[in-house]
Amino acid sequence: MGAGRNHPAGVALLPLPVSSPHGAGGRRALPWLPAFLAITVLAIPAAIPTTAAAQTEAPGQTLKRVEQDIQADKALQRQLERHSQTLQKEMDELRDRLVGLADQERAQEGELAHLEDTLTALEAQERSQSERLEGERQQIAALLAALQRVARIPPEAALARPDGPVDTLRSALLLRDTVPALRARADALAQALTRLAETRESLEAQRSRTYAARLTLIDRQKDIARLVARREELSRQTEEERQQVAQRTARLTGQAADLRQLMDRIEAERRAAAAAAAKREAERLEAERREAERREAERKLAEQRAAEQKLAEQKLAEQRLAEQRLAEQRAAERRTRTETEAARAAPPPPAGERLPVGGRVTVRYGEADRYGATSRGVTIQARAGSTVVSPQAGTIVFAGPFRGYGQILIVEHSHGYHSLIAGFGRIDTAVGKRVATGEPIGLMPTDGSPDLYFELRRHGQPINPQRGFGAPEGKGQG
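The chain above was modelled as a monomer; its predicted structure follows.
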């Protein structure tokens, strides 16, 4: 605003530069931002005079200045409304990206679990082959040592030994039969060593793929955290700008009201001075008006009599048309009532089923939980730090700690459904927020193998969450 008015809000209302995620980590500038900044600067009205300056200025001029400021603020508010709509569109695109990233994270978690299972199997296979080859090596080493001892005995010494010729012959035959067997076992050992080397190569490749999958999963989780923070920043920025413009407009409106009261008093005095002269002129005009009204009344009476006949004919035609429309309306109401009763009797269509987090279901609906009680929902063992998503579109009605359940979230859906989700490490939404199907709403704890409890209710009664939102109504268990 001008130098004579202490109003820094005009500067604070300039919108901050906004950018949105694009691709894997890039950011794109909003193309409309420079034009909006120029419009915002031009929309800042002229300064309202200070008290000392206002004393030398007529009230009408001051009022005109204030009204110009109000009009300028209204134009600025319209610009902010358009800005808010653009931000809302960006937030909708951001929500869609969050849903997609959550699905990608869940797929990455499944792939990582498969790679880890394969890695465990390869490690077990490598240990088994190594133990079997070690046993073969020890047996062959013992046989080779025995053969070396026999081979070192010369033929003359063998004849002079106390053993008989039959024993010597048996030793020679045993030696002849053992050599081919040892050769075959040595070949088999070489092949086994080759397979062991191949297994170790597969094991190293599998470890590399597992490490790459873990890095990809970490990147997905970082992207989701960045987008959730961006969503909250856009929402907060839009609300602050609206509040600033509303406060400034209200203050200017109050100043305009005070100036109008002053102008009204001045105008009242001027009207009182002219009232006496105007009264005589008004009396003359009143006499002329009455005469003109008398002549006009006579003319209208003649026209009315002619119109009454025509009106009677029109009423008769309208009465017949109204009776026909009434009959049609009653038939339509009967059809509508029949369709409404049929729609109420039919169950709502299934809306798909989606668990809030990926993982292994450890306790199903109706089974005994770890305390021996019958479970009213399902318990899912998830990966540490996994993203938790909304199973269905709805509104957050509770978010925070509750007794011994830790951090819990309750989402209200259509057709009387409610989702109760417990076991969060962190909640990324708040009461009153609308969430889409699959939109991230929080994270699992970052240590161990955390459990998430998911309970689905309809009209206050628990139902099986794994049967989806189209499951028939029932009392539930427990």
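The longest helix spans residues 165-345.
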